[in-house]
Amino acid sequence: MLGETDRNLARSLCEEQALRRVATLIAEGSADDVALAAVVAEAAELYAPAHVQVVHPAGVATTEARFAVEAPVLVDGTLWGVLVAASDEPLAPSCAARLADFAHLMATAIANGRTRDELRAVAEAQGSLRKVATLVAQDASPQAVFAAVAVEAARILRVGAVSLVKFDADTLIYTKIYGTHGERAAVVDGGTWPIEDCPEGALILQTGQPVRIDDWTFLPGPVAARHREQGFGQCVAAPVHLDGALWGHIAAFGEADDVLPDGSETRLADFTQLMASAIANAQAREHLRSLAEQQGAALRRVATLVGQRASPGMIFDAVAAEASRALRVSRVDVGRCHGDGRVTLLGSTDDLVRSNGRAFSRGGELVTARVRETGSAARIDDWAALPTEAAGVAAREGFRSVVGAPIRVDSTLWGVIVVLAEEPLAAGIETRLTDFTHLVASSVANVQARDNLIASRARIVAASDEVRRRIERDLHDGLQQRLIALGLGLRAARAKSALPADLHDALTDVARGLDDVLEEVRIYSQGLHPPLLSRSGLGPALRTLARRAPIPVALTADGVPRLPEPVETAVYYTVSEALANAAKHSQAPEVTVSVEADAGTVRATIADQGVGGAAIGPGSGLVGLVDRIEALGGRFTLVSPIGQGTRIDIELPLTAQTIGDLPTP
């Protein structure tokens, strides 16, 4: 028979073996329930017939045994439960110590399980973040990013229904961005509902924390009713904050018979913190894309006006309208800054201002002065803080808030664009207005480039015309007069002397030759700059040109008044060159020419029914005509399909305003 010492030794060996078996299970990463069951089973076998159980802190051991030993299970310093061994017979002296060892192993298994769960949750969240971040990096649409966020939240929480909801703090309205519910959704994607019908959103607004709703039974409103009808139960939701402000929330819904695990709202909150940056990036990209599209469309509309040679007033009215549309404000003025401090109104969205002599507002002048001082955007929200008399006048204009931003062309302050509002303007509008001034700067630069080109062409044409006039005068006053004198002298010499017949005939031939040369010089000088055009105007000059043309001409130019000399010259040379080309190349029986003028424009058309095929290109006399017409702000159009004749249309303004006509600094 074993002695007491031997029995104690044998018990100790059994206890050590049991502890090793449990420790091995835990070290191998066995599931939590397996490890905990092994702890209870090993302890129960060791201390049989003692009853072994685990009691949670709020529970009570279910035993009426006379003897009991307890060991606390501490997980991360917190009492998780108590391991109890109870028996009607006395327990071994080592039972308390060994039970404590088992309790420690149990705590280790629980802690390891928690760690594995936390690591798994972190890995899942990081995997979700990588998926969403990849979409953002690939410039996916915001809707695709938002859908991915909702899907990943559903996967992490292991639920079927997740909604990403945006909140409008101004209207207290929620908008559902995306949901994984499908047809069971209480609110469709893109749908809106008020705060009183969004219980989880209302709780988030109230607490600022993740929330949980376990019972929807008595919640009012159509959304809650639909939620119940579709068989959903518990809900957890977590706020999404962007730049310190509430953007919205993510809500996850379990089925009616499901129980969402404790801490689900915390896991969802951790997930939303990771996703917030992705949502912000997607939203920022969408904002930039939208802004680029708006500015691109605005620039194209303004550029079209520039290309159509619209007046500066029309162009800058369009610029003001585009700024008004982009910034969502009603009153925008565009001004030209001058060196003496004045500001001239170029464009405005206010019809009354435009029709009232284009006077710049006093509020606009004051904010422009600040723009001049700082070289950057400025705003005025409090007129009472300005001591000047002008501030009182500005206040009486009725604008509560005024913001101005500089327009720079070639790094120099050219003008200003001003927003005027009867209510306080939103913060940050200075930046958006500054961005928009780049459009204005490019438009101004384009108009200036156009005007510079037109002015350069005009100077070239004017110089060419002056040379033509000088040559014509020199021919008329010099060579023509000498030829006339020579002819008269020759005829006088022939008449005074009795000459042999052959010599007389020879002198007669020379006199005729001098007359022919004189006529050629006269025709050449008229081609350079016909005197009749200067003396009598376009109608008589064209009629003479038509009579002398080598091809029949049907001319309609009745009632054309005297026009500015550059315009008359341009029309005359266009008709002259077109008639010459038609005579050489068209094989047409006739050319029709029509000229008409009204208060602001002169138009001319030269057309034939010849072989067509004319083109503007190197070596063509039409190139110089195009330059001449466009130098005067006009249009030159050539239509000449092969076999269908040729038509030239020109249109010239009788008055034209350019930026160069405006007051300069």
SSE inventory with pairings:
Elements: H1 4-27, H2 32-46, E1 51-55, E2 67-75, E3 78-87, H3 95-137, H4 142-157, E4 161-168, E5 173-179, E6 192-194, H5 199-207, E7 211-213, H6 222-229, E8 232-242, E9 245-255, H7 264-307, H8 312-327, E10 331-337, E11 343-348, H9 351-354, H10 362-374, E12 378-380, H11 389-396, E13 401-409, E14 412-421, H12 429-496, H13 501-528, H14 531-536, H15 538-548, E15 553-556, H16 565-586, E16 591-597, E17 601-608, H17 622-631, E18 635-639, E19 646-653
Parallel strand pairs: 15-16
Antiparallel strand pairs: 1-3, 2-3, 4-5, 4-9, 5-6, 7-8, 8-9, 10-11, 10-14, 12-13, 13-14, 16-17, 17-19, 18-19
Helix pairs in contact: 1-2, 1-3, 2-3, 3-4, 3-7, 4-7, 7-8, 7-12, 8-12, 10-11, 12-13, 12-17, 15-16, 16-17
Concise overview:
With 665 residues, the chain is an alpha+beta fold. It is 52% helix and 20% strand.
List keywords for this structure.
665 residues, alpha+beta, Beta-Lactamase, 4 domains, six-stranded antiparallel β-sheet, 17 helices, 52% helix, 20% strand, nucleotide-binding, phosphorelay sensor kinase activity, Sensor_HK_TwoCompSys, phosphoprotein, ATP-binding
Textual characterization of the structure:
- This is histidine kinase.
- Its EC number is 2.7.13.3.
- One of its GO terms (biological process) is glycolytic process.
- The protein is an alpha+beta fold.
- It has 4 domains: 4-119, GAF domain (Beta-Lactamase); 139-289, GAF domain (Beta-Lactamase); 309-454, GAF domain (Beta-Lactamase), CATH 3.30.450; 536-665, Heat Shock Protein 90.
- 52% of the residues lie in helices and 20% in strands.
- It has 17 helices and 19 strands.
- A 6-stranded antiparallel β-sheet has the order 6-5-4-9-8-7, with helices on both faces. Strands 11-10-14-13-12 form a 5-stranded antiparallel β-sheet, with helices on both faces. The chain has a 5-stranded mixed β-sheet with strand order 15-16-17-19-18.
- β2 and β3 (78-87) form a beta hairpin.
- The chain is elongated and about 180 Å long.
- The model is unreliable at 657-665 (pLDDT under 50).
